[in-house]
Structures are given as structure tokens and as C-alpha cells.
Amino acid sequence: MATIGKFNTLPVIALTDNGAYLDAGELGEILLPNRYLPENCQPDDQLEVFVYLDSADRLVATTEKPLAQVDEFASLKVVQVNKMGAFLDWGLPKDLLVPFNQQHTKMEVGKYYLVRVFLDQRTERLVASSKLDRFLDIWPAEYQQGEKVELTIGGKTDLGFKAIINNSHWGLLYNNEIFQPLRTGRKLTGYIKQQREDGRIDLILTRGGKGKVIDFSDKLLAYLADNDGYAPLHDKSSPEQIKRALGVSKKTFKATVGNLMKKGKITIEAQGIRLK
């Protein structure tokens, strides 16, 4: 059975003047309009399509990719506000509604908001909510120190950035451990730094210890390759220079350089490092 609000792989039943009809199981037959049909499409072909309701509330398929699927978080721009609520641009012809009762604060046209996309069970319509806490797990998390997790960046605080862990829990990235630009809605990989006794979770963007060196080695080698094999960075470079150029701390930079030098992949010169 196909799922509304997600990508599904569905078989082509028949081709018509309007497009292809796809078998969506209990949802019935769903039209994929002509403008989305792949070249030389034939009956029984399997097509990966996104299923949603069009402006007439009819189920329809598209090969266009929305900025978020059901049960995902995304930072989306408000393009219209009317008596029904706020409408967000999520990459499809029909904008995504955030009803007034799903707005954490009153939304304004032109601003971006972090929202969760969900299927309203009462109306079977795809909508979004900026009341994020209602979608996160109320039970204590069970993460391990150093565990790799997927993060969605939330709002900025005095201490750093809040981040949603694996679409399930809030965590915190501290300012003094952030070495790259962050923005609300950005998705990236992080690691569990620690889970405190009060249940709150501290995060970090690079793996600690030996893993951190391994994580950054490939990035440093790629940076050198993209810059004619040379970087004017060395032991006397300031932490700010290293952070600006590479997005890591000076400690991580020095450890990685030492590791790569031992492996014979780089050489250290008076004013920088060079790819061998």
C-alpha cells in the first residue's frame, strides 16, 4: 500500500492522454500527470513517485522532490497567510498549510520556520506544525557516548544551538565546540558527547579521540587537492585562521596533520603543509 506524503515505488497500470495511472493498493489508482512521465514509460514499469493531495484534494503522484516528507523536519519559507493559516513553500505546486492552531508563534510572510510535516488523520491532508515538542519522544533517550546520530539544527540559544537527534529528541551543541556555520533546519551528522543525569543530551559535531582524526583526514586531503596541494597553515597559525579555512579546531588540525605526516601523505614546510 502506498503512503501519502512519502515516496513510493508503484507499478504503472495504464497510459492515458492525461498521464499514467499507478496502482497504489488500498488508495486506489493514482494519476501521474504527463509532465512527470519518464521517457518511454510502459505499463508494468515501476516508478518512484511522491504521493500527495493536489489543490482539488485529489490524490496525485509526482516525481518532483519536496523539501520534506511526512514525519520529517525542515526549515520552510512562508509565502502566504490567510484565514486558514500560513502556507509554506516546500517545493511542490501546492503549498503546505500550517493551521493557526499548529503555529508555535504567529507566522509571517517571508520568514522561515522549522516545522514537522505530518498527515492529519481527521482530514487526511498533509499539513505542518511548528509546535515541535509534540512530535518528540517524551521518554528518556538511550544513546551511547560517541554514538553517531543524525541532527536537524533548531534554534540558537545563549549556549549554542539546539538540535533534534534522529527526529526523536532534543540535544545541544555548545558554541565553543562549533567550528562551522550552522542554520536552522540544516541536517548533518553529529555524535553524542554525553547524556546528563537530568536527561539532557550534549552533542558534538566531530567524533572524539582517534575517530576525530580519521573523520577530518579525508577532508584535509581534499582541501589540499583543491588548492594546488598546499595550505598556508601551520603550528603557529591562529585558531581563528584554521577555523575559517577548514572549519575545525586547532587541536583537531594538529592531530590530523601529525597523523597524515606519519602515513607519508603530507609534508610540513616552513609556512604550511603540502600534499605528497
TrEMBL record:
Q: Which Gene3D superfamilies does the annotation name? A: Nucleic acid-binding proteins, Winged helix-like DNA-binding domain superfamily/Winged helix DNA-binding domain
Q: Which residues form the Conserved virulence factor B-like winged helix domain?
A: 218-275
The organism is Thalassomonas actiniarum
Its domain of life reads Bacteria
**Protein name (record):** GntR family transcriptional regulator
- What protein family does this chain belong to? Belongs to the CvfB family.
What InterPro entries does the database record attribute to this sequence? CvfB_fam, CvfB_S1_st, CvfB_WH, NA-bd_OB-fold, WH-like_DNA-bd_sf
Conserved virulence factor B first S1 domain ranges (all copies): 4-63
